[in-house]
Amino acid sequence: TYFGFEKIATGLKEARVGAVFSSVASSYDTMNDLMSLGVHRLWKDYFVRGLDPGTNPLSASPPSNALPRGWNILDVAGGTGDIAFRLLDHASNVHNDYTTRVTVTDINLDMLAEGRKRALATPYARSSRLSFVEANAENLVNIPDNSVDLYTVAFGIRNFTNKEKALREAYRVLRPGGAFACLEFSKVNNTAFDAAYQRWSFGAIPLIGQLVAGDRDSYQYLVESIAQFPNQTEFKDMIMDAGFIVPGRGWEDLSMGIAAIHKGIKP
Ligand code: SAM
User: Fold this and answer.
1) 13: closest CA among 143, 158, 165, 200?
2) Which of 28, 61, 118, 120 gives 20 to 30 Å between its CA and that of 8?
């Protein structure tokens, strides 16, 4: 790092991401609905169904101790709790599992505050099954090595300054056999549809952001961060480089690749 420029650039990205999410925290649902035309809800449902959280068997491999103890799930960049509530609902309603717990971590206090507020409308508000913790995905200081059964990150990783470092942290905190699962905007795999999608992204979304939330810049950032994120294969390679074993081809496209689910297992 020449004269610390890299450090300054890192700080700038973190500051920008912080400002964006503080600014959109209260209009977060509207933002997601607008950006995905409401489809993010279906993607999130699908993501969680595929992970099938709940007592035995853990799809990756069963917990090493024989007693059903529920899963210890870490939802990173969990913001407003969208994924965490779905994970807990699934464990309870599908598996009658009331022991699985989720720790939501996020770097942004405004997003965590929004999540705590929204948790009040769920059965988990005062339960030990749900906790909110401020943490940077690149340095999960209070999460011990080999302690997590399932690590989820949804629409979070593209905002991280150092994605490789975050993947290495995911690897560190997961127990052997534990699963990394990521839902993120990705690259559209159909040329004609991609042209329309790009017009929608760069044309409509910042404009809607301006009109609905009075905040063009944040929405412009979100569209740019999607465009800059690695494609499906590149991201799969990054997951493998962090040490994970990748099942099958490593990802599943959703809505022609607008979003994708990537998974990795810690050997
Ligand atoms: N997972 C939620 C969902 O799917 O609705 C929230 C996604 S929101 C688009 C992205 C979140 O990533 C924000 O809450 C933001 O604060 C968080 N974030 C950005 N950089 C982060 C980092 N380095 N560590 C942890 N969280 C981060």
Assistant:
1) 158
2) 28
| Structural domains present in the chain | 2-265 (3.40.50.150)
Task: Read off the tokens for 200.
Answer: 């929608």
CA-136 nearest atom, ligand 1: 24
The alpha carbon of 261 and the centre of ligand 1 are apart by a number of angstroms equal to 16
C-beta of 82 in contact with ligand 1 (< 6 A) = yes
For tokens 């022609």, name the residue.
256
Give pLDDT tens digits for 23-62.
767 777 777 787 788 899 999 999 999 999 997 644 444 4
113-141: pLDDT as tens digits: 999 999 999 999 989 999 999 999 999 99
DSSP string, 154-199: ES-GGG-S-HHHHHHHHHHHEEEEEEEEEEEE---S-HHHHHHHHH
Kindly state if the Cβ of 219 falls inside 6 Å of ligand 1: no
Please return the burial class of 255, using the count of CB atoms within 10 Å of its CB with bins 0-12, 13-18 and 19+.
Answer: middle
Give the chain's mean pLDDT. Answer: 88
Here the tokens at position 157 are 């990783």
Q: What is the ipTM of this complex?
A: 0.99
Q: Tell how far the Cα of 105 is from the centroid of ligand 1, in angstroms.
A: 9
